[in-house]
Specification:
Elements (H helix, E strand, L loop, with lengths): L1 E5 L1 E2 L1 H18 L4 E5 L11 H8 L5 E3 L10 H4 L5 E2 L13 E5 L5 E8 L11 H11 L7 E7 L3 H10 L6 E5 L9 E2 L5 E3 L4 E4 L8 H9 L14 E10 L5 E11 L1
């Protein structure tokens, strides 16, 4: 099975870039399942049913969340009937679900898990390590062709710790949140594909998707700045392609990155 995971899709430029590139990549690389992080898909903060459905039409099959996934209040209810998993280690009672089994018919079933890191993060979240172990135990014995974990975290050390913690137990651990792709994509010793951060799909000439002048001013002055997301100019498409083996682990992982005007 060949699974493509897109980095955080940021705003309208990220959605447009996905629509422009993803259909060709899916066909060229024989992708069976396309996943993406959606926490910034609507106007740079959060998600909406409209923006999720727009990117579904572009070829993404399922989405993971993060600490901004509920930035748009309408999503509290919308998430319940959309192919989106929010962090599984959010407190009980949070809308949505933190895991999903995706049925691909003759290709088999894929377990998708979303987790939120706690280092340098303001959100109140339960222990992601204990949470993912509970989920894996719950699904133990099921006929799964792959298990993909999105570790949405600030600290690279927390990403790496989760990768080694789950090595040999899941197909892949992919990091999201920083919007900056890392060069460490590899298969860990136990057979789990890993990358610290996939990156993003959004504005190239920006700072994490925000207009660069705003962020620079934020650093050089003492005055608060209102974020304005960059929707014009060249865009970056960051993703990783994971190929699985018959035992549910990974044969390979490689970056697929492209700049488009």
């Amino acid at each position: 099975m060949r699974i493509l995971f897109l980095g955080d899709i940021v705003g309208s430029l990220g959605r447009a870039t996905t629509a422009k590139l993803l259909p060709t990549i899916r066909k060229r690389d024989r992708v069976n399942l396309s996943l993406a992080n959606a926490e910034n898909i609507a106007h740079g903060r959060g998600a909406t049913q409209e923006t999720i459905e727009e990117v579904l039409a572009s070829g993404v099959d399922y989405f993971t969340g993060g600490n901004h996934i509920f930035w748009q209040k309408s999503f509290y209810e919308e998430i319940e009937h959309l192919p989106v998993v929010r962090p599984a280690n959010y407190p009980s009672g949070t809308p949505g679900r933190g895991e999903a089994v995706i049925d691909l018919g003759r290709l088999g079933r894929v377990l998708l898990i979303s987790l939120l890191g706690r280092t340098f993060m303001r959100d109140v979240a339960d222990d992601p390590f204990a949470t993912v172990s509970e989920i894996l135990e719950k699904h133990q014995g099921e006929d799964l062709q792959a298990t993909i974990v999105d570790m949405h975290a600030e600290a690279t050390s927390e990403h790496q710790a989760m990768g080694f913690y789950l090595d040999g137990r899941v197909t892949a651990v992919v990091g999201t949140h920083t919007h900056v792709g890392t060069v460490d994509a590899r298969v860990l010793p136990g057979g789990t594909a890993y990358v610290t951060d996939v990156g993003m799909v959004g504005s190239l000439d920006s700072i994490l998707g925000v207009k660069k002048e705003i962020i620079i001013q934020n650093y050089v002055s003492a005055l608060p700045q209102r974020f304005d997301w960059e929707d014009l100019g060249p865009a970056i498409f960051n993703s990783v392609l994971i190929e699985t083996d018959k035992g549910g682990l990974a044969k390979s992982i490689k970056r697929i990155d492209q700049v488009v005007d």
